[in-house]
């Protein structure tokens, strides 16, 4: 088996980056409506830099309208205001990025996102509002931050009925901004806030359609914050009993958020999505399927078929920013050499260089190969490396794969997140 994989890699990969590989990949991406760009960790500079370069080209050369990321709506919308040159965006990009204050802040408050934000702001500078490229978060974790934003928004709207928002806020307030505490109360004691959340979302749904051009996106933001509250409420409630179902709630929410953003931007809109490989790589071709789990890549492919183009990323060895436990100080950790027989090790064994592989009929032999494929999260234990490999049919999970032989940790903006080695 390994010899067939090595032969295919040697025959079908292209040096990366090169004129040939960039031209080939751009030709595929530019035909898609949804370009999904993955990452094998949340703390590797090469993944961020490469996704940023592709995003710039897709926006400037092919009219892609926005970047959607695995981040909170409320914090990302602060950065969105900055890149669109809004007067309420703060003094500079660092102020906008300071909204990413919740752990793991380094995911978005880092030097590579800072550079991308400045590029987006310059790109948008002389464009009408309808043509500006946006930056949005589609994840579920910002329950209380989104409630705060909704109240702030509604308080600025003359004649607004705040009752639905206040009822939702009061319902959640008793849980002291602790998602697990809310989940336990909702699951075991019937003290959930589902009815209040539904009422709030109904109050804000599609209000942007009747709002003037100057306030249209802020009205959308209010709805998206309500959608985030709904997703977070369901996530924390299901997390207590069902790990697989809470994952599914989260990924279905992200697809729902994407659909809303596509609707808002109108017919012909195309988007670049940045998320971990575990979200953008089709779950049907991993062991996630056996546990009843779905993900963004699978759901989008099922809905939109060939309009979706997913690119996975990986590395053989290097360094990464991660934490030893949830909420613990971030560290720059060593990423050990990939284990023998894994996808990353075979890519390395075929030649220790960066490379691109686009999956097509020439790589069909890989369609039968289940290989270990490394996934590093925000919590990482290099000494337990074998547990970080996901059984995967790589050629079915992605449409293309970018491999960096050696990678390095990204640079967080916060000194607190950058320290120990």
From TrEMBL:
Q: Do you know which Pfam families this protein is assigned to?
A: Erythro_esteras
* Coiled-coil stretches noted in the UniProt entry, renumbered to this chain: none
GO biological process: any one? response to antibiotic
Q: Which residues form the signal peptide?
A: none
- Tell me the protein's name: Erythromycin esterase family protein
């Amino acid at each position: 088996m390994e010899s067939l994989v090595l032969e295919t890699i040697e025959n079908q990969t292209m040096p990366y980056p090169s004129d040939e590989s960039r031209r080939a990949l751009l030709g595929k991406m530019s035909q898609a409506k949804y370009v999904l760009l993955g990452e094998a960790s949340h703390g590797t500079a090469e993944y961020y830099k490469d996704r940023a370069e592709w995003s710039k080209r897709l926006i400037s050369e092919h009219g892609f309208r926005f970047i959607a990321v695995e981040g909170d709506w409320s914090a990302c919308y602060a950065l969105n205001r900055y890149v669109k040159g809004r007067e309420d965006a703060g003094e500079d990009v660092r102020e906008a990025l300071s909204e990413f204050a919740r752990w793991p802040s380094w995911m978005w408050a880092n030097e590579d996102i800072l550079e991308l934000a400045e590029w987006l702001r310059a790109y948008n500078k002389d464009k009408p509002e309808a043509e500006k490229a946006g930056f949005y978060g589609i994840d579920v974790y910002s329950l209380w931050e989104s409630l705060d934003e909704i109240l702030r928004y509604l308080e600025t709207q003359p004649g607004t009925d705040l009752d639905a928002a206040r009822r939702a806020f009061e319902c959640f307030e008793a849980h002291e901004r602790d998602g697990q505490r809310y989940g336990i109360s909702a699951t075991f004691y019937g003290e959930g806030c589902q009815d209040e959340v539904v009422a709030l979302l109904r109050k804000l749904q599609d209000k942007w359609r009747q709002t003037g051009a100057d306030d249209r996106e802020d009205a959308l933001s209010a709805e998206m914050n309500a959608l985030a509250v709904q997703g977070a409420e369901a996530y924390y409630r299901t997390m207590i009993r069902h790990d697989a179902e809470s994952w599914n709630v989260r990924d279905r929410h992200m697809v729902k958020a994407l659909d809303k953003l596509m609707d808002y931007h109108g017919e012909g809109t195309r988007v670049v999505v940045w998320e971990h490989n575990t979200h953008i790589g089709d779950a049907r071709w991993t062991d996630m399927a056996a546990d009843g789990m779905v993900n963004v890549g699978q759901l989008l492919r099922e809905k939109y078929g060939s309009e979706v183009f997913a690119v996975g990323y990986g590395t053989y060895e290097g360094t990464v920013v991660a934490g030893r436990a949830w909420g613990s100080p971030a560290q720059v950790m060593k990423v050990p050499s990939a284990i023998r027989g894994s996808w990353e090790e075979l890519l390395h064994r075929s030649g220790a260089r960066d490379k691109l592989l686009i999956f097509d009929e020439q790589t069909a032999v890989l369609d039968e190969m289940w290989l270990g494929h490394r996934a590093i999260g925000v919590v990482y234990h290099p000494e337990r490396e074998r547990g970080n490999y996901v059984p995967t049919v790589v050629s079915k999970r992605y449409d293309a794969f970018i491999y960096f032989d050696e990678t390095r940790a990204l640079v967080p903006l916060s000194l607190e997140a950058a320290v120990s080695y």
